[in-house]
Amino acid sequence: MGACASSSRGRSNQGKNLKSSKVAAVPFTPATQTVAAAAASEEKSSFKWRIDGFSTLLDKQEGWTNSGYFEIKGIKWYLQLNLKDRKRGDKRDYVSLMLELSKTSDLKSEIVVEASFKLLIYDQAYGKHREHEFSHHFQTEGSRRSGVSCMIPVETLKEESSGFIVGDSCVFGVELISLATAKANHSSEMVHVQKTNGFSAREAYTWVIDDFLALKGRCYSPEFEIGGRKWYLIMYPSGIDDSGEFLSLYLNMAKPDASLQRSGALVELSLSIKDQVTSNRYTRTGRCQFVATEGDGWGWAKFMEVKSVKDRYLVKGSCLIEADVAIVGSSKME
Prior knowledge:
The chain is mainly beta. It is 5% helix and 51% strand. Strands 2, 3, 15, 16, 21, 22 and 24 form a 7-stranded mixed β-sheet that branches. Strands 1, 17, 18, 19, 20 and 23 form a 6-stranded mixed β-sheet that branches. Pfam families: MATH_2.
């Protein structure tokens, strides 16, 4: 997720096409738990992470568990595991894996690691491993995470006939498919900015959150459509770092249809939290480039102090978040 070039201001609510819905929040806690884990590299192109006493981890509350650091091709990585992740629209718990480039990797900031990997949950009884292949461009000061992969429902993992849990241990891993390093991407992106009439009318979507104080971790709004694209908001009520100091807020583009796969959108964006008594609002604005990939998001890690939200913007525990979006241009990679 990025952070738009931004400004903050108060304003009234006039002259906009409004949409709204109540909260459909999926909580997610980006916390680190401690487990007894044995991790070993079979070779320099793979890593296996065996977790013993796995039933204890299954009983823990939601959150991420990190593996120890390991090296592949001289670069340090670690795996992250979540046993209570959710897919939007699915109430089941999922096992999610994510690969992250370590901050301690000795790479210059302008270097991009172009890598393809395979994430695995090992079937220890029958060899029918669960696999997920992905490609990602990693940077030490940019995108260090591969993105979350919901690999398998937890209920499937726990089935005795599955072979994933044997002797109260479970094994996860990663295998390298290909890896190359290069300087930061210098490919050109042609941006066409529309004139005053705009590419799409400015529209606003209001997210009604009924019980803000009960929310934990990452929360999603329902999807909404503006300018022919589908979007959703992500909010971290205690901050993306879970410090409890700032509320974090982002606008994300949902997965586009096939006709939009090769295009992007230049968006004028305002995210606001509304004062339900005076109709004033706290707003941050920016102009952001969204490419047509699922999960592409922009916003602010330090959108507003949590204390200010609680003191000024809650009415009987509820608050209103508004996204004001206008697509003012389009882009194409060449």
